[in-house]
Amino acid sequence: MSSQSGTQAGAIELTGIEVVGEAERTARPRQLFLPWFASNISVFGMSYGAWVLGFGISFWQATLVVLIGVVLSFAICGVIALGGKRGSVPTMVMSRAAFGVQGAKAPGIISWLTSIGWETILAITAVLATATVFERLGWVGENKVLLNVIAAGVVAALIVLGAMAGYHIIMRMQSVLTWITGITTIIYVLLVVPHIRWDAIMAIPAGPPAAMIGAMTMVMTGMGLGWVNIAADWARYQSREAKGAAIVGWNTFGGSLGPVVLITFGLMLAGSSAEISEGISNDPVGALAQVLPTWFLIPFLLTAILSLLSGAINGIYSSGLTLLTLGITIPRHRASLIDGLILSAGTVYVVFFAENFIGPFQSFLITLGVPLAAWAGIMMADIALRRKDYDEKALFDGAGRYGAFNWTALGIMAVCCIVGWGFVVNGFAEDAAWNNWQGYLLPLIGGRDGVWAGGNIGVIFALILGFGGYWLSCRGRVAAQEEQPTA
């Protein structure tokens, strides 16, 4: 199952979900910084400032929530990335060790849906930003619908083509995008600093601990937990000699640096202007352009789209790999094309038919955040329990040491989902009515109108129960697997 394609830097990647060959494992931990930083440096991150303050907490409470939520969530990604280095395979192939070769298809479906959802959200944001900025420039008259159609088509095409190119081209592209996005974002900050009003920011009243937990849960699901299902995809190219602590550190640093700075600035901007805060619900990036001078709108638009495309390309790349783990036998680049078509359909729906952006977005984060948190907890426990590299051959053989199904792990994940969904609630019921079935356990802690109702602590419960349940019930199974000789 080892890849012998000998893919060179700058060439289209032919490696799918098979084991990366030793000749291609030349990456160093510091090289993980670029893809993680570039994927999370988008100005879209500033929009979280309005959403965090929307939980009814003060600026200083929100700043603490952002710091803890962002860093902790990307640290989880760093731990999961260790599996890529140990197994030389994508994230969802690596999870076969915990769930069984066939059993891993269950969390694989969740992973695929999550990646598709994120790619679509980023594409939608890019399309909405394009329309908003063009409208401010006076380029949109009665042809706004046509402009949205063209923008949606161009955005989707760029995302799919980038993802089809693969690992090496993406890495080179990220190094360029990082500089462009970083410089333009700094200019944006300098231009809008005069609009910051500290008197308004400091006047925001403090909120209860439950509101802080709810805000932190949203930050975690929107940041690191949104990427955790693909965290090992880049690390599978790491050298065998790469230090585990360095992999975790560079993942965490690269993923966290941009969001911590951007969301904190977004808190200042949203706290200073009620107009911006309200506009972000319908057009996250376009609303940020309201305070910009006209001459900077085009550079802002281009940079915003490039940064959004960067994250979406990484997502499409990994969702294509996940599709292959579900048993679909097609080349990786064709899997990315299939995901791109689905992305396009989702973009069209939200841009042309949904009433706003934030309702479907938050509902998506919470609903898939619960099973994803449960899976992450299980995988962190599995990685922590193992002392040896994964048996690469057994990851593709249901008769091998990992077996076809680990019913214990699947049962733990099911319990985590039942508990987790019971303690979360859709805060925008009118905009995502299909998701109002959640929160059935909230009467245990005060009901849907209680202080903890908006805390969405079900995501945290799922993460903790997943880790603890697997650690306690599968220690013997892992130890027995470690004693078997590697094929």
UniProtKB/TrEMBL annotation:
Keyword set includes Cytoplasm: no
One GO MF term: transmembrane transporter activity
Domain of life: Bacteria
Mode of membrane association: Multi-pass membrane protein
Record-level GO cellular component terms: plasma membrane
Transmembrane segments annotated in the record for this chain: 32-53, 59-82, 109-134, 146-169, 176-198, 210-232, 253-274, 294-317, 337-358, 364-385, 405-424, 451-472
Pfam families: Transp_cyt_pur
Coiled coil region boundaries: none
Homology family: Belongs to the purine-cytosine permease (2.A.39) family.
Protein name per its UniProtKB record: Allantoin permease
